[in-house]
Design brief:
GO molecular function (chains A, B): 2-hydroxychromene-2-carboxylate isomerase activity; glutathione peroxidase activity; glutathione transferase activity
Number of strands of chain A: 4
Catalytic activity (chains A, B): 2-hydroxychromene-2-carboxylate = (3E)-4-(2-hydroxyphenyl)-2-oxobut-3-enoate
InterPro entries (chains A, B): DSBA-like_thioredoxin_dom, GST_Kappa/NadH, HCCAis_GSTk, NahD-like, Thioredoxin-like_sf
Strand content of chain A: 5-15%
Order of helices and strands of chain A: EHEHHHHHHHHEEH
Keywords (chains A, B): Isomerase
Oligomer: homodimer
Number of domains of chain A: 1
Number of helices of chain A: 10
CATH architecture of chain A: 3-Layer(aba) Sandwich
Strand order of the largest sheet of chain A: 2-1-3-4
Distance between the termini of chain A: 10 Å
EC number (chains A, B): 5.99.1.4
Largest sheet of chain A: 4 strands, mixed
């Protein structure tokens, strides 16, 4: 079965849309999804981006929030803008990086808390109820996330993202190295994955 | 019939795709297209953008050229990257601004020369064969373009773009003031135009 890698960071707004659409669309296309949380700041830094481009370019930022509302509506997803943006996402990224075969559920639930309900997602206290709501052992998972292995897992994903040519989020990459940037490139990425697999 | 305004500048790569897809898609949706060439640089300047973002952010630029090739392939359009990017587009923009009811043909033909064949489009000599190929009086149209009225036509469009909240190209705006940025937002913009018209 062809594979599509989905690169995301909980600081990324459009990744909320992608996280909720990639699963069903990939299943329909017969494609396996590899969930890869990474540290977007580490990918922005070499580009000279010291903050979210949506904060650095005000008009683009204002547009993004309106666009997000429309995309959420189009996809039947709730949307609420969090008070703080971007939120400190490193803990949530680490949790997803150690979530094993529950990574899809964990990713969707954290994004829904953040952009569906506008909740903070930066701390243990923020994330615990989200994880508990999935029937997971929140304390154990949060401890794993900040263990040396948890930190290394996110670092490895971030190195792999840079290696794969990822420069923003969400990004989809195929096994033959094609890069597709943006939630709006999901269909194109899946079509590529299914038509270019040996 | 609902109307969709299509804002573009010949310095914009993705507008090549939009210029060739907006007509057929709008006709199918029962929407009138208003073609509005404008000066992208005047919209970039207040954002602190002194060059194409695709030149300022190298990774994004490299990705854009690959993405353009794929989008051209997907839409059955030829694609050849011009040696110079961005090209000086003010004359071509002015020509489109004075092209009257041939604006769609003129716009598509100039974009095809530029990004379908990779040709220069900056000067009278570059544009004359393109216009002649459409059966137009190239000399007359090029003279109109740089007349006071031609210059004012492009200036008015640019002022209107800023007024409408345009911050990049291509952009589509609806009669009720919604802004859609990017060739990949065409279907969404048309759906909005048809469903939100009184």
């Amino acid at each position: 079965m062809p594979r599509l890698t989905f690169w995301y960071d909980f600081a990324s707004t459009y990744s909320y849309i992608a996280a909720h659409t990639v699963g069903p669309a990939a299943e329909k296309a017969g494609v396996d999804v590899v969930w890869r949380p990474f540290l977007l700041g580490a990918v922005f830094a070499p580009q000279g981006l010291t903050d979210s481009p949506f904060n650095m370019f005000e008009l683009k930022g204002r547009y993004m929030w309106r666009d997000m509302q429309r995309l959420a509506d189009d996809n039947g997803l709730p949307f609420k803008r969090p008070e703080e943006f971007p939120q400190r996402s490193i803990l949530a990224n680490r949790v997803a990086a150690v979530a094993g075969d529950r990574v899809g559920d964990v990713t969707r639930a954290i994004y829904s808390a953040e952009f569906g309900e506008g909740r903070p997602i930066a701390t243990d206290e923020d994330l615990a109820p989200v994880l508990t709501g999935l029937g997971l052992d929140a304390a154990a998972l949060l401890a794993d996330a900040v263990s040396p292995e948890g930190k290394q897992a996110l670092r490895s994903n971030t190195d792999a993202a840079l290696e794969a040519g990822v420069f923003g989020a969400p990004t989809f990459t195929t096994e033959d190295g094609e890069v597709f940037w943006g939630s709006d490139r999901l269909a194109q990425a899946l079509a590529w994955a299914t038509s270019h697999t040996a």
